[in-house]
Design brief:
Number of strands: 28
Organism: Trichoplax adhaerens
Pfam family, one: Trypsin_2
Radius of gyration: 25 Å
Largest sheet: 6 strands, antiparallel, barrel
EC number: 3.4.21.-
Structural class: alpha+beta
Distance between the termini: 51 Å
Number of helices: 13
Strand order of the largest sheet: 1-2-3-7-5-4
CATH class of the largest domain: Mainly Beta
Shape: elongated
Main location: other
GO biological process, one term: regulation of fatty acid beta-oxidation
Number of domains: 2
Helix content: 10-25%
Length: 600
């Protein structure tokens, strides 16, 4: 019997032209399989002006053959066995509502959802690049075309093979997309590289969270679950509160998401109920049969959103959007009664050229704009209290909102003990990465999940936190949150970039511990003396400067706790035959401090 409802789908044009990806059996009794339209990307003219100029189902059926690959459960066999079942194409359609979100929020001139051209490969980390250039899948995974309209197509197949009796007959629960919220844990079940080598990759599982939801009607989910080529059409499941087992909540639209050639680390997911309700009723002989799959209100599961919803709303409401000149980043409200926000210095003092003068000139009355989304959505003017110019070692800034009421802001509890910051702790990073909230349809900051990978200490005090959570441009100044306590552990500053290849390590992020910031904020609140904030600079501490500039030498090793810190990373890379050079790369939407950050 089939182990579960996720399968491999194969499209055969000729013996030498076989393409494959993942799929989901949505109705075992009728043998209906849903998969991604990118399986037909080789037939789509990406320059076609009319997206409706699709080949008809009958035309495709004459030239293409479809089948699914299922894994058979055999307790008596020492190895897994697979079976190919013949299918017939029943329908092919665009999901218009998803296309509208892509057109509005992710325009094609800046966004790409496929394996990038050769010149863009170095903007993925080495591990992801290697995985997706696997020779097994180099020629036959489905994701090839760059036109976003390709990935918003879906195919409905029906199994015609008499051996479909091998399919599992257990009913599949499908969840209403309105129940999915940011922070919900999801599992993606797919087969990387399609039919290249199912013995190893068949129905691989990866987990992540719903990082953000796009569209006024929740038309598109972003998840930080890491997927590979061939995962298009894979099943996305989630166990909501009150459920005994997980429900099918969506289908992988694209395992890749690039902005300005930079890999974001996100997988795009389309809600299952949206896909099925967008299935065209006209010219479809089986439409009445499919209506049973569309979950009318009378038969929807009586579920409630997960209990973590209030937690995510609470911790993210203190994260704000900051605009300075033409750049933007994130910040965290730490005192709503005084309107104090901490962020990164390079967010409020962006460099707009390679000139040192542009980076170092000061403005005593520098003002920025702040946008809050909760409790209310509103713009505020703010003044930069510290620093007056971007020249300090520790990349931190303090700003104060003008003309506000405490009830209009939300603040967050701060971690006040170094002992509470520990390696391996589950964390969240929250910030306005990729999307400015005033230009797209979702108003919430993006959330990614990870853990504290290592902590760099100087004089036994945490000075730098490395995490495994994915971050993107615009996350600078965002919140590093303890998943267990909801306390602010630090602010996000940067990630690593290989300056030789240009590769960006999306899943390595560096944060400043809030315990290095909070004591100076307390002193300032008591004295109202700006000079008390100058201690945040660590200007005279060479060890801190060398740490954050990734220039630590052997003479510093006695002072630093080198458990998987940047110094150890440098040692590992320099020991390779081809020497690699790493540097910290800013994750704000601007150029930043020359020498320690890299514009990209």
């Amino acid at each position: 019997m089939l182990s579960n409802f996720a399968v491999v789908v194969r499209c055969i044009e000729s013996y030498q032209n076989v393409r494959s990806c993942s799929g989901v059996v949505i109705d075992f009794e009728r043998g209906l399989v849903l998969t991604s339209g990118s399986l037909l990307s080789c037939l789509i003219d990406t320059n076609a002006a009319d997206r409706q100029s699709l080949a008809t189902v009958d035309q495709l059926a004459k030239t293409l053959k479809f089948e699914i690959i299922v894994k058979l459960e055999n307790n008596h066999s020492k190895s897994s066995s697979f079976m190919a079942l013949k299918c017939q194409l029943r329908s092919r359609w665009y999901c218009r509502q998803v296309q509208e979100v892509l057109d509005n929020s992710m325009p094609s001139h800046r966004w790409s959802f496929t394996i990038p051209p050769e010149k863009q490969w170095d903007n993925m980390d080495d591990g992801t690049k290697a995985a997706n250039t696997n020779p097994l899948a180099e020629e036959n995974h489905s994701n090839q075309k760059s036109d976003p309209s390709v990935i918003t197509q879906f195919l409905l197949l029906q199994i015609t093979d008499t051996n479909k009796k091998f399919l599992n007959s257990d009913p599949i629960e499908m969840a209403d997309r309105r129940l999915l919220k940011r922070g919900d844990v999801v599992e993606v079940i797919s087969t990387p590289f399609g039919d290249s080598y199912p013995l190893i990759f068949y129905n691989s599982s990866t987990k992540g969270i719903i990082s953000n939801i796009c569209g006024k009607k929740n038309q598109l989910f972003l998840t930080d679950a890491r997927c590979l080529a061939g995962s298009e059409g894979g099943a996305v499941v989630c166990k909501l509160a009150g459920q005994s087992k997980a429900s099918l909540v969506g289908v992988v639209m694209s395992p890749f998401c690039f902005k300005d050639t930079e890999w974001t680390g996100f997988t795009l997911v389309v809600p299952i109920d949206l896909i099925l309700t967008s299935l065209p009723s006209k010219h479809h002989p089986l439409v009445h049969d499919f209506m049973a799959l569309k979950l009318p209100n009378s038969t929807r599961s009586n579920l409630t959103p997960n209990s973590d919803i209030s937690f995510f709303d609470k911790v993210s409401s203190a994260v704000v959007y900051i605009q300075s000149l033409s750049s933007w980043g994130s910040g965290v409200v730490i005192d709503r009664y005084k309107g104090l926000i901490i962020t990164c210095s390079h967010v409020v003092h962006p460099c707009n050229s390679n000139s040192d003068d542009d980076c170092n000139h000061g403005e005593s009355d520098r003002k920025v704009r702040v946008l809050t989304t909760k409790p209310i959505k509103r713009w505020y003017n703010a003044v930069v209290l510290y620093p007056k110019q971007h020249c300090q070692v520790l990349d931190v800034a303090v700003i104060k909102i003008l003309d506000f009421l405490p009830s209009q802001l939300s603040s967050i509890s701060l971690c006040k003990s170094d002992s509470a910051i520990s390696t391996g702790s589950d964390i969240l990073i929250i910030g306005y990465g990729m999307f400015p909230p005033h230009t797209y349809e979702a108003n919430e900051p993006t959330v990614t999940r990870g853990s504290i990978a290592s902590i760099c200490r100087i004089n036994n005090k945490p000075m730098l936190i490395q995490t495994s959570a994915a971050i993107q441009c615009g996350t600078s100044g965002g919140a590093l949150i303890s998943k267990n306590t909801g306390e602010l552990l630090g602010i996000t500053v940067s990630k690593v970039k290989n300056v030789n290849s240009g590769g960006i390590y999306t899943y390595i992020s560096f944060c400043i511990p809030v315990t290095r910031i909070y004591p100076q904020i307390v002193k300032y609140n008591q004295s109202k003396d700006i000079s008390d904030l100058k201690m945040l600079s660590y200007q005279n501490d060479s060890a801190v400067g060398q740490l954050w500039l990734m220039k630590a030498t052997a003479a510093n090793y006695r002072q630093l706790d080198l458990r998987y810190t940047m110094q150890k990373i440098l040692c590992e890379y320099s020991s390779r035959p081809h020497k690699q050079t790493l540097m910290i790369s800013s994750c704000s939407r601007s150029e930043v401090l020359k020498g320690s950050y890299k514009k990209y």
